[in-house]
């Protein structure tokens, strides 16, 4: 019933509809960019299809563009989502398995960043269980290390970078 595949152009519209149904803002332009970058071999997009419906995805950049791993050339997993109605079924783990396997073609480590607010709680737990560890540079905000005692907003731009050996 579950299949992990490349992104289809039609997935953008389906994901946007699904996001609206669960109260999230649609990301049509972002999905279209992902598809275009996939077709140019600039990004890999892994889509979980359950009963012929796209229910989750993650993207893989061959080399991190930002953060502490950009200088090291680590591949980076980005924008990981499983629709709420399909969570806690092992779908996220299956997507991650495929993405990590593909990342091994680019290096022996893989990196990612995770948001720090509670909306990222499930992802935080999953990453730790899968062996990801923080790099030690601390919290980042809007692509810069957040200096100690700095006031910031606990939004999607407040992140922690992590990696693991694959």
TrEMBL record:
Gene3D superfamilies: 3.40.630.30. PROSITE patterns: GNAT (PS51186). Residues 2-166 form the N-acetyltransferase domain. It holds the Pfam family Acetyltransf_1. Coiled coil: none annotated. SUPFAM superfamilies: Acyl-CoA N-acyltransferases (Nat). This is GNAT family N-acetyltransferase. InterPro entries: Acyl_CoA_acyltransferase, GNAT_dom.
């Amino acid at each position: 019933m579950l299949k992990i595949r490349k992104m289809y152009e039609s997935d953008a519209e389906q994901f946007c509809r699904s996001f609206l149904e669960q109260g999230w803002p649609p990301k049509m332009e972002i999905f279209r960019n992902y598809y275009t970058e996939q077709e140019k071999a600039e990004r890999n997009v892994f889509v979980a299809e359950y009963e012929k419906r796209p229910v989750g995805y993650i993207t893989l950049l061959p080399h991190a563009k930002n953060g502490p791993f950009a200088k090291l050339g680590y591949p980076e997993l980005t924008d990981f989502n499983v629709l709420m109605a399909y969570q806690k079924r092992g779908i996220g783990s299956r997507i991650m398995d495929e993405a990590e396997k593909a990342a091994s073609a680019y290096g022996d480590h893989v990196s990612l960043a995770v948001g720090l607010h509670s909306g990222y709680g499930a992802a935080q737990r999953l990453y730790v269980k899968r062996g990801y560890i923080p790099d030690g540079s601390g919290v980042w905000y809007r692509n810069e290390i957040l200096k100690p005692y700095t006031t910031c907003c606990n939004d999607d731009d407040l992140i922690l970078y992590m990696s693991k050996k694959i």
